[in-house]
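Sequence, please.
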C-alpha cells in the first residue's frame, strides 16, 4: 500500500518549531517510503485563521525544503462533506440527536463540579424514543449530533508509543455536529483524512486524546484505520514546555538570524529522533535514508540552541563556498547601507572578485556558526577600513609600545619579495621574528591576528596572511602599529 501522509497545520500563527518538526517527520517518512506528502490547512476556526498565516507556513516549509506533493487543500472547503458525513452517522444510528441546550449542559457540569465528580455527557438523549426525537426535530427544535460511544476500551498500536488504550467509560458521547450546523474538529479531520486516503497520521502528542474518538469515527464510517504515531513534546533545556524564553519559536526567525535550512532540518530531525548510533550531522539525503518513525523517542525532546549552533556550523563548513557567497554579500551590503554607504565603498572588490571571495570563504568557513558570523570573518579580507574589536584589543594588545615595535619589525621582514611566496615561507618568517625577539610565537601571532582581522578569531594566521595578499597585509600591519602608537601613554 502506498504511503500517504499529511501535515495539517492550523493557520493561526507562523510555522513554529514544533509544527515544523511534525512536518519534517511526515515528509521524511513519505520520502523514505516513496510515499506522498500532503498539506492540509485546517482553517475551520474562522476567527483565528488568516491568509497571511497560511503564507507564513508555506514560506517556512519552502525554506526548509519540504516540498508538498498534494495541496494545500483547505479544511473549510470540505464543510459540506463534513456535514453530510455527520448526517450519515445519524442515518445509520451511530449518532443521535441531542436536544440538551447549552444552559442545561452548563448547569449539569456545574453540579458535577460541586459534587466533586468528573463530568461527562450522560447519554440521556441517546435513550429518547426515535419517533419522539423525529417529531421534536420536525417541529424545529435545535439539536446537535452526538456519537454513541460503545462501552468498551478503545486502543491502537501507536507507531511511537506502542500499545495505547483508553478504558471503557473514559470517553463520553461526543458531539460531531453542533446545533448551529458546524462540524466539530474530530469529525472534520477523519472526514478529510479518509477522503484523502491517508495511511499514516503522524502528529503531536497533544492529539493523543483525540485519537480514540477518531478511531470510533473511522469504524462508524466503515473506513480502514490509518496507523497513528504521536510525536512527543518539545521542552526547553530547563524541562519546561518550549516557549519564547528558550529562543525564537518561528522557524523563519532562524532563517533571518542566518541559519542554513540544512542546519535547521538536521536540528529538527534530532528533536526526538536518533539514528541509534552517535551520528549527528546529516544532510537531507542522509536523513531520508536513516529516518525511521519507529526510532522516534517516547520521551520529550529538548530544544538546545547550542546544539543548533554547532550543527549549523558543521553545515556551513560542509557547504561549497559558492553557495555561501550570496549570503555573505547580502549581509555585508545590508550593513553598508545601514552606515549610509555602498558595498563597493566598504568592501571594494568584494563583488568583483568571486574567485577570491570563494577562496576566503573556504579559508574561514570551518568555525562560524551562522551566516553573519561567517560574513564577519570574510569582511576583514576586503574591508576598506578595519575596526578593532575591543575585547581583542584588551586581550592581545596589552603592551602597545612593544606590540607596535614587533609589528613594524614584522612589516619590514615581510616586505621582501619572497615572504609572500607561500604559506610555509610566511610561517618561517613570522616564527623567525619571534625567535629573533626572543619571545614565544604567540606574542607575535596573536597581536598580528588583531592587526589583520580586527578580531581574535582563529583561522590559521599564515593562511590569513597569504589570502590577504602582500599589499593589504602590510598596510594593515603598519596601520595597527600607528593605532598602537596613539595608545602609548605620553612619558
Ligand atoms: N490542526 C492540528 C494542529 O495544528 C493538527 C491535526 C492533526 O494533525 O490531526 O495541531
Amino acid at each position: 500500500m502506498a504511503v500517504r501522509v499529511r501535515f495539517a497545520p492550523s493557520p493561526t500563527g507562523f510555522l513554529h518549531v514544533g509544527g515544523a518538526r511534525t512536518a519534517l517527520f511526515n515528509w521524511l517518512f513519505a520520502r523514505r517510503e516513496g510515499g506522498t506528502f500532503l498539506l492540509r490547512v485546517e482553517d475551520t476556526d474562522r476567527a483565528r485563521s488568516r491568509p497571511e498565516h497560511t503564507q507564513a507556513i508555506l514560506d517556512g516549509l519552502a525554506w526548509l525544503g519540504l516540498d508538498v506533493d498534494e495541496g494545500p487543500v483547505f479544511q473549510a472547503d470540505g464543510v459540506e462533506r463534513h456535514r453530510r458525513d455527520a448526517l450519515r452517522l445519524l442515518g445509520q444510528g451511530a449518532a443521535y440527536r441531542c436536544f440538551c441546550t447549552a444552559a442545561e449542559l452548563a448547569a449539569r457540569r456545574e453540579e458535577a463540579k460541586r459534587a466533586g465528580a468528573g463530568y461527562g455527557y450522560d447519554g440521556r438523549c441517546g435513550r429518547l424514543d426515535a419517533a419522539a426525537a423525529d417529531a421534536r426535530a420536525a417541529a424545529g427544535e435545535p439539536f446537535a449530533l452526538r456519537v454513541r460511544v460503545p462501552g468498551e476500551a478503545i486502543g491502537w498500536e501507536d507507531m511511537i508509543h506502542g500499545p495505547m488504550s483508553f478504558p471503557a467509560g473514559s470517553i463520553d458521547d461526543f458531539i460531531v455536529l453542533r446545533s448551529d450546523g458546524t462540524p466539530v474538529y474530530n469529525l472534520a479531520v477523519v472526514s478529510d483524512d479518509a477522503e484523502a486516503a491517508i495511511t499514516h497520521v503522524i502528529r503531536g502528542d497533544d492529539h493523543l486524546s483525540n485519537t480514540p474518538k477518531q478511531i470510533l469515527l473511522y469504524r462508524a464510517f466503515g473506513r480502514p484505520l490509518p496507523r497513528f504515531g504521536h510525536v512527543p513534546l518539545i521542552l526547553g533545556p530547563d524541562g519546561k514546555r518550549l516557549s519564547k524564553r528558550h529562543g525564537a519559536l518561528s522557524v523563519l526567525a532562524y532563517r533571518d538570524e542566518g541559519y542554513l535550512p540544512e542546519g535547521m532540518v538536521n536540528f529538527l530531525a534530532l528533536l526526538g529522533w536518533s539514528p541509534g548510533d552517535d551520528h549527528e550531522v546529516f544532510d537531507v539525503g542522509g536523513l531520508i535514508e536513516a529516518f525511521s518513525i519507529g526510532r522516534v523517542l517516547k520521551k520529550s525532546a529538548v530544544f538546545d540552541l547550542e546544539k543548533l549552533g554547532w550543527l549549523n556550523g558543521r553545515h556551513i563548513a560542509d557547504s561549497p563556498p559558492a553557495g555561501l557567497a550570496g549570503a555573505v554579500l547580502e549581509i555585508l551590503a545590508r550593513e553598508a547601507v545601514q552606515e549610509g554607504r555602498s558595498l563597493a565603498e566598504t568592501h571594494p572588490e568584494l563583488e568583483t572578485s568571486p574567485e577570491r571571495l570563494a577562496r576566503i570563504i573556504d579559508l574561514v568557513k570551518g568555525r562560524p556558526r551562522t551566516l553573519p558570523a561567517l560574513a564577519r570573518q570574510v569582511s576583514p579580507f576586503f574591508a576598506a577600513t578595519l575596526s578593532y574589536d575591543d575585547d581583542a584589543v584588551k586581550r592581545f594588545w596589552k603592551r602597545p609600545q612593544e606590540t607596535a615595535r614587533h609589528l613594524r619589525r614584522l612589516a619590514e621582514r615581510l616586505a621582501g619579495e619572497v615572504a609572500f611566496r607561500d604559506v610555509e615561507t610566511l610561517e618561517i618568517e613570522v616564527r623567525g621574528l619571534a625567535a629573533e625577539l626572543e619571545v614565544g610565537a604567540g606574542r607575535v601571532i596573536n597581536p598580528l591576528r588583531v592587526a589583520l582581522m580586527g578580531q581574535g578569531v582563529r583561522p590559521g594566521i599564515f593562511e590569513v596572511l597569504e589570502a590577504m595578499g602582500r599589499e593589504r597585509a602590510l598596510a594593515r600591519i603598519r596601520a595597527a602599529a600607528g593605532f598602537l602608537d596613539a595608545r602609548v601613554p605620553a612619558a
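Residues 8-10, 42, 189, 203, 207 surround glutamic acid (CB under 6 Å).
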